[in-house]
Amino acid sequence: MSSTTSPICRHCGASLPASSRFCTRCGAPVGVLPRDEMLIPGGKRLRVTQETLSLRELQTMIESGVHWWQQQLRSTDQVTRRHAAAAIKDLSRILDSLSEQLAQGRETVRITTRLPVARRYSVGCPICGRGNRAGARFCIACGSLLPDTHDVQGACTEQPEPLRLHAAVLSDVGRVRRNNEDTCAVEPITSVGGAVAHMLLVADGMGGAHAGEVAGRLACETVQQTLRTELQALLPADDTAWQDLLRRALLAANRRVYGAAQAQVEQQGMGTTLTLIVVVGDRAHMAHVGDSRAYLFNAAGVTDEGEPLLQLSSDHTLVARLVDIGQLTPEQSRTHPHRNVLYRALGTEPTIDVDTGSHALRVGDRLLLCSDGLTTYIEDTELAQIVLEAAPPRDTCRRLVTLANERGGQDNISVIVATVEGAS
Length: 424
Hints:
The chain starts with 6 loop residues before the first strand and ends with a strand. The protein is globular and about 65 Å long. It folds into three domains: 7-110; 123-157; 161-422, PPM-type phosphatase domain (Phosphatase 2c, domain 1). The strands form six sheets. It has a five-stranded antiparallel β-sheet with strand order 8-18-17-13-14. A five-stranded antiparallel β-sheet has the order 9-10-11-12-16, covered by helices on one side. Strands 1-2 form a two-stranded antiparallel ribbon. Mean pLDDT is 82; it is low at 1-6, 30-35 and 150-159. A hairpin with a 5-residue loop joins strand 9 (182-190) and strand 10. By secondary structure, it is of the alpha+beta class. It has nine helices and 18 strands.
């Protein structure tokens, strides 16, 4: 993300002189936000249900975006003004569509494009790793005889297979930025009773100057400390308990980053994305805020439909929601001028909503966590092709970072790749 230092009021979006400490329009303390990275002013929130979005909330967010781009029309740079004019035209078209629907009495819009459904199958093939539905006798992918997971009364007695996780991490400043605002961590944490939980974390800081680095580092440190402390006291018993633990860790990180931002004038407005996965046994538990991403790959399929990739996280960006309702295609979203408009990030508001989830793991799975410096340049299908090649995780990380740099490297690039292997 950008590290330029032009002050932008995070409450009303006004452009301000470099020396401003308070907004001349609304009086709020000034935070430094990059020009190409916009948080929705005033803590606007967008609630996404399984099926719908609120039209009024989406309209408010887009109106904030229009106002912000109107400020850019005052720039002395001609390219910036042309970019702003195009952005306003695009957002105005979407506003017109939403206004027409509201005028007709419609309050919600149905989501037309969502992430694929995570695997729900219960029986993993011991030969190829492909998942099969309960009751299957032979693997749908390779035809191998499946283990009998039911007793004579029909009750499921399947036990989690022992797995090993092999992970690597690589973070690169890219070819344009002068400092790296990404923070990554891969750490095994031993819990009470001796169980090992593998923590994978990527954070992408924002805020100008070095505030983004501070936000990412504080968030990472807080999550690590929270997990170490709580896992020494109690090992969560099920998926719900794990998700509650990860949510608490991110909420603690949000409080720490927000408090630091309020305490230092030069850090006001800073924030960070954070994508966290904790692997324990045959389960991957996730907590997520922002537009860094987590993926699950397996050549044998990771969904009921047999797709080789699954994006586990959902981008908290305006563009992602416009894709959801069919206003933009996924291809258009990759280069859209609003692709960095976040409506949710750690540390920018006193409270935050955290996405959580849990997913089954099988032998042959590969996990990828990354900042948007990678996904800006590499599409999902190409990601799957590279990640699923039989290369060690460290080599895969190097290849992905090198490719993103070759295609521009205009942002920091951070990648974690983890392979799931049998214990024997």
